[in-house]
């Protein structure tokens, strides 16, 4: 494995490791444990890739590249009957205008028919933001390992194998890509917004410095964990990543942070900065409030 493993040394990670290896925690974690023992009975898990899409006109090339990446994943598993061709699924949750979605759906149906190893589905999003679209995709997913990634494929796809291994064999519940802190954050307004949100997640939500990059559009989850988190997700905008990470820390799950080198930007951002300025800080406070009051359940 080429990447440096950057398991966080903070207490919640250590706690999760103890519960996993020695079974010390029962009660609120029992459902997660039960889910774990029933997984991965035979070979390669089925992988789901969820991509929220909004007016993504170049989605066809992204899906072709993704399809090649999951084909490589499938052929890595060799059984006594030869290579195991486990099927994966690519789920596009789309909030674009109907004409774009219709084209995507038609193309995906044709493309899927020729694929031995992947099924492409296009779901209509709820038109309430990126987080709401991810929730729809997560709840519809069936994979044992589920990726959530941006449609502009910000990270080289060879990392899919590495992230999958960390969940499947390394015992991680959540694996997040972290880009260098020095990366270019786009225009000045976006830069100020992202620094402000970074400060809020650090000082208010986690109240410690746990992550250097919560917003990288390339994350992998244990499928059952993601589906349970999505079922209680309240954030419908771009701060949903932080809600998932906050839930995971509250539930004592194992999160792995992996340094990644992003691909160059291939198109202008789809993020509506004005809308984000109004919505994101408030959403982070809602997440914290929820954690302190009603809480999040395993
Ligand atoms: N379904 C849906 N997807 C969205 C929405 N806003 C952004 N996206 C998607 O979220 C992903 C991240 O967008 P991108 O412009 O790459 O963000 P950036 O790299 O952070 O500037 C892309 O796949 C977009 O198509 C939305 O409102 N609905
Ligand atoms: Mg992007």
Name the CATH architecture: Alpha-Beta Complex
Whole-number average pLDDT? 84
Strand order of the biggest β-sheet: 1-10-8-9-7-2-5-6
Shape: globular
CATH topology: Spore Coat Polysaccharide Biosynthesis Protein SpsA, Chain A
Instruction: Tally the beta strands.
Output: 10
Q: Give the distinct bound molecules.
A: guanosine-5'-diphosphate, magnesium ion
Descriptive overview:
There is one protein chain. The protein has 298 residues and is of the alpha/beta class. It has one domain (6-292): Spore Coat Polysaccharide Biosynthesis Protein SpsA, Chain A. The chain is 45% helix and 16% strand. It contains ten helices and ten strands. The strands form two sheets. The protein has an eight-stranded mixed sheet with strand order 1-10-8-9-7-2-5-6. Helix 4 links the parallel strand 5 (88-94) and strand 6 (118-124). Helix 5 packs across helix 8, helix 7 runs parallel beside helix 10 and helix 9 runs parallel beside helix 10. The longest helix is centred in the C-terminal third of the chain and has 20 residues, at 273-292. The model is unreliable at 1-45 (pLDDT under 50). Bound molecules: guanosine-5'-diphosphate and magnesium ion. Guanosine-5'-diphosphate is lined by residues 51-54, 56, 93-95, 125, 129-130, 133, 150-152, 217, 269-271.
């Amino acid at each position: 494995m080429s990447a440096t493993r950057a398991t966080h040394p903070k207490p919640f990670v250590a706690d999760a490791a103890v519960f996993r290896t020695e079974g010390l925690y029962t009660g609120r974690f029992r459902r997660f444990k039960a889910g774990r023992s029933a997984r991965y009975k035979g070979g390669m898990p089925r992988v789901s890739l969820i991509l929220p899409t909004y007016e993504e006109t170049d989605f066809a090339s992204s899906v072709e590249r993704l399809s090649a990446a999951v084909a490589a994943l499938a052929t890595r598993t060799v059984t006594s009957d030869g290579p195991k061709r486990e099927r994966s699924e690519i789920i596009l949750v789309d909030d674009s205008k109907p004409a774009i979605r219709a084209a995507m759906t038609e193309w995906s149906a044709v493309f899927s028919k020729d694929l031995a190893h992947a099924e492409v589905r296009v779901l209509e999003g709820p038109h309430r933001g990126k987080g709401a679209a991810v929730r729809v995709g997560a709840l519809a997913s069936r994979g044992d390992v589920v990726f959530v990634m941006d449609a502009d494929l910000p990270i080289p796809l060879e990392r899919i194998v590495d992230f999958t291994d960390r969940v499947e064999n390394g015992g991680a519940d959540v694996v997040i890509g972290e880009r260098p802190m020095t990366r270019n954050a786009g225009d000045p307004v976006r830069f100020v917004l992202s620094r402000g949100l970074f400060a809020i997640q650090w000082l208010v939500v986690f109240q410690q410095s746990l992550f250097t990059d919560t917003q990288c559009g390339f994350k992998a989850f244990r499928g059952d964990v993601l589906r349970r988190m999505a079922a209680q997700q309240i954030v419908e905008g771009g701060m949903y990543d932080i809600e998932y990470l906050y839930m995971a820390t509250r539930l004592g799950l194992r999160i792995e942070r992996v340094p990644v080198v992003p691909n160059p930007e291939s198109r202008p951002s789809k993020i509506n900065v004005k809308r984000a300025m109004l919505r994101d800080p408030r959403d982070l406070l809602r997440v914290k409030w929820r954690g302190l009051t009603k809480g999040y359940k395993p």
